[in-house]
Amino acid sequence: MMLALCFAELGTMLPKAGGPYAHVMRTFGPLPGFLILWGYVVLISGPFWAFLSYTAALYIFQPFFPDCEAPDNAVKLLAGWIMITFVVINCVYMKYVTKIQTLLSSTKVLALLIIIASGIVNFTQGDTENFEDIFEGTTKEPGEFAVAIFYSIFSYGGWQVMTSLMEEVKKPEKDLPRSVFIAMIAVITKYILANVAYFTLMSPSEVVASNAVALVYIHRFYKPLTVVISVFVALTSIGALNASIMGHSRLIFAGARVGHMPTILGMIHKKYLTPWPAIFLLLAWGLTMLYTGGVTDMMEFISLFSTIMGIAVVSSLLYLRITKPKLPRPYQTMLFVPVSMFIVNIAVLVLAIYQKPHKMGIGLAILFSGIPIYWFGVLWNPKPLPFKELTESLTVFMQKILMIEKTS
């Protein structure tokens, strides 16, 4: 929540599409900004879309396989269909997207309320044996503790997308801080209560081992509700995917407008006024991650870059506080908030790298591979004439095929 308040302050100061990318570029220059854009696309957008669509498909299939795991290939095929379907909806039926999002978000609330209410029933009936020595066997190693925080960053993440749509918010100075306080408190409370409910019928080892905790729990509580919770959780994941498609594509769109992405990625459809090329690029990467990556890898890469992005955004906020104290700030959080978040995120990043140097090293290598790409795509000018002619002809060809145009 404290990190979200830092994002809110920068978002109201610099209400531009692109969110963290726009803030870091404005503060530290084009290369750091490009690395945030590159990392967001490669380490968050693709893995996140893949994870959400996979989760939705898993919860749809799992009720048909109550005593074993659903076939992975079938789950991935359905996940790909879900991802493609909601990309089409975001491209063609944008006016219905917000209405769909409201419906999908309500299913999350209903699912959590059912789980929390059942947990209260179990608790009052004396199902508390799993709370005895609940932290038994918990590690005290700082590195493993940091990795645990990494997974919690993933679990409570996704709110960063709120600053990617700033140009479409009518009163960001009021709406953004208000949404942070209301949403973050509600989400944290609901998820803590849901986890408490799980432990009334499941041991810590069972919770860790399960791929579909909510289904296992509700199956033990009241079997007929299994299908209901399965549908609700699937719709919840689809809702998060739908919001990500809206927000993440705007990040690439913002990058293309300042020359950090190919020109075509900054174009929109003539009729539907949505950034088709940016959405299609993320769709291709999301499908690639879905069919080649593991779930744990996705979570770790997302958490790694989320931590790095948090450090970059908080550094931007502190830098602007020092160098431009008179810059208008419609919303300003207390100073200890960004300072503490900077220290905590640095500590978590260092300990996670120490604990998992190979996996974290791969993630960092992917992030910093953006430096030669930045040199090739942005700094290398003038490019050879044949290369320019090829890219221009491809751009014109795609404009004709997709019926897209530059924005004014």
TrEMBL record:
Q: Which GO terms describe its cellular component?
A: membrane
Q: Where does the chain cross the membrane?
A: 35-57, 77-97, 109-125, 145-166, 178-201, 221-241, 276-295, 301-322, 334-354, 360-380
The main place the protein resides is membrane
Query: Its membrane topology, per UniProt?
Result: Multi-pass membrane protein
Q: Which Gene3D superfamilies match?
A: Amino acid/polyamine transporter I
Task: Give compartment(s).
Answer: Membrane
Keyword list, A-Z: Membrane, Transmembrane, Transmembrane helix
Q: Name one GO molecular function term.
A: L-amino acid transmembrane transporter activity
Give the protein's recorded name.
SLC7A5
Q: What span is annotated as the signal peptide, if there is one?
A: none
